[in-house]
Design brief:
This protein is α+β, with helices and mostly antiparallel strands. Among the domains are: about 85-160, Dna Ligase, domain 1 (2-Layer Sandwich), CATH 3.30.1490; about 200-350, 2-Layer Sandwich (Nucleotidyltransferase, domain 5), CATH 3.30.420.40. The protein is about 35% helix and about 30% strand. The protein is built from eleven helices and 20 strands. The protein has helices spanning about 50-70, 105-115, 165-175, 190-195, 200-205, 235-245, 250-260, 290-315, 335-345, 370-385, 400-405, and strands at about 10-15, 15-25, 30-40, 45, 50, 75-80, 85-95, 100-105, 125-135, 140-145, 150, 155-165, 180-185, 205-210, 215-220, 225-230, 275, 285-290, 325-330, 350. The strands form six sheets. Strands 3-2-1-6-13 form a five-stranded mixed beta sheet, sandwiched between helices. A five-stranded mixed beta sheet has the order 16-15-14-19-20, with helices on both faces. The chain has a four-stranded antiparallel beta sheet with strand order 7-12-9-10. Strand 19 (about 325-330), helix 9 (about 335-345) and strand 20 (about 350) form a beta-alpha-beta unit. Helix 4 (about 190-195) crosses helix 10 and helix 6 (about 235-245) crosses helix 7 (about 250-260). The longest helix is centred in the last third of the chain and has 26 residues, at about 290-315. The two termini are about 35 Å apart.
Length: about 400
């Protein structure tokens, strides 16, 4: 680990795996991936720590793996946060400009954002992001950057993302125990969007569905801004569990069968094709048609997408996203998932892997590392936008420090 140079690290703490991506910024305003670390997630369930020591050990293992591969010492990281404790709401802030016909300054935007976050939230919740959607100057809407405009009244529509204080503190303590400083906590669906979307998809409007092991993250874009985010407590692990029960096979074997022979659409499977299903605890293996696997997988995936469709109704988007549905995360690799999504949502759907970085033959992360790569993109965006942040140091971080990190808009 003797090489010098600034590095950026993305740490994705998922339900089934801990993923770490180490990258080095380049002169072309992008980055080169130096190493990837990966470890099974233990002690973490649906976005919350359930076993402190196991979670710490898993994070350490993934960090050590990434350090060994990259040859760099990891001291800090951008950390993805998700889980069913994440909630979001849209809000509006309104402020008066000093005088009629006055020019809008950056300070006026800050005041408007402060007004927008003055909403009533329970004492056990913390604001993670305040994401500006659009600005209105004297009833003229659709403004992305009002600095320099003249007017007497400034309004801003924002998307406010909150999380459980307890869940956040427990994650922070686990990471601190590993000797890693936190650059910033970032909503995982937001990070994944940075990794897999093109600008025209954001401008036209789209839905990003990040299918993880225990949760599925959703983010809805319309008119170039985030309109809705949500987390569903269901993911690829649920499909694996259904297969294990339905086929009477161990969970690890069910996962292998799902990845190698599973399909989210029965019609895509040749019923005559047979696969070998291992038995449980010494019981004999048996031959099963692939159509049987698909008949177990398809209902669960339909249920997952139905829950996503319910969230889309909550988003109250005024028109269908022109760029359709973008699928990512490890669960998107399941055969037939995009075709099933098209049927459920009646929108074009495609799987997507991370892009917009300097590729190498050694590291080519797939959809399962969308969040980790997206955290690197997010970091560079923050630097380019000139947004300041505060690093936390030490194990015992207070809630006030958490607020200072997380309440910044991007």
């Amino acid at each position: 680990m003797a090489r010098n140079g600034k590095i950026i690290t993305g740490l994705d703490i998922g339900t089934t795996k801990i993923g770490v991506v180490v990258a080095e910024p380049t002169e072309s305003c992008t980055f080169r991936i130096l190493g990837i670390g990966n470890a099974p997630a233990e002690g973490f369930k649906k976005g919350a720590v359930v076993d402190f020591e196991k979670t710490v050990d898993s994070i350490r293992q993934a960090i050590d793996d990434a350090e060994m591969v990259s040859g760099r010492k990891i001291e800090s990281a951008f950390v993805g946060i998700s889980g069913d404790h994440i909630k979001s709401i849209n809000s509006r802030g309104v402020v008066a400009i000093g005088k009629t016909g006055g020019e809008i300054m950056p300070g006026d935007i800050d005041r408007a954002l402060q007004a927008a976050k003055s909403i009533s939230i329970p004492a056990d919740r913390e604001i993670i992001h305040i994401l500006p959607q659009t600005f209105i100057v004297d009833e003229q809407g659709g403004i992305k950057d009002p600095v320099g405009f003249t007017g007497s009244r400034l309004e801003v529509d924002v998307h406010v993302v909150t999380g459980s204080v307890t869940a956040i503190q427990n994650i922070l303590k686990c990471i601190d125990k590993c000797g890693i400083n936190i650059d910033e906590l970032v909503l995982e669906s937001l990070a994944s969007s940075y990794a897999v979307l093109q600008k025209d998809e954001i401008d036209l409007g789209c839905v990003v569905i990040d299918i993880g092991g225990g949760t599925t993250d959703i983010v809805v874009f319309q008119d170039g801004a985030i309109k809705h985010t949500a987390v569903i407590s269901m993911g690829g692990k649920n499909v694996t569990s259904d297969l294990a029960i339905g086929l009477r096979t161990p969970l690890d074997k069910a996962e292998q069968l799902k990845c190698a022979h599973g399909s989210a659409l029965s019609m895509r499977v040749d019923a005559a094709e047979m696969v070998l299903v291992p038995g449980v605890t010494g019981r004999e293996s048996k031959q099963v048609s692939r159509s049987v696997l698909a008949s177990i997988i398809e209902p669960r995936m339909e249920e997952l997408f139905s829950l996503v469709a319910r969230e889309l109704k909550k988003s109250q988007i005024t028109e269908a996203p022109a760029a359709g549905v973008v699928l990512t995360g490890g669960g998107s690799l399941l055969d037939g998932t995009a075709d099933l999504a098209e049927q459920i949502f009646d929108l074009p759907a495609k799987p997507a892997a991370p892009h917009n970085y300097e590729n190498s033959s050694e590291f080519n992360p797939g959809p399962a590392f969308a969040t980790g790569v997206g955290l690197i993109h997010y970091s560079l965006y923050r630097q380019e936008a000139g947004v300041s942040k505060t690093k936390g140091k030490g194990m015992l971080r207070t809630v006030e420090k958490i607020k200072k990190w997380l309440n910044e808009y991007f």
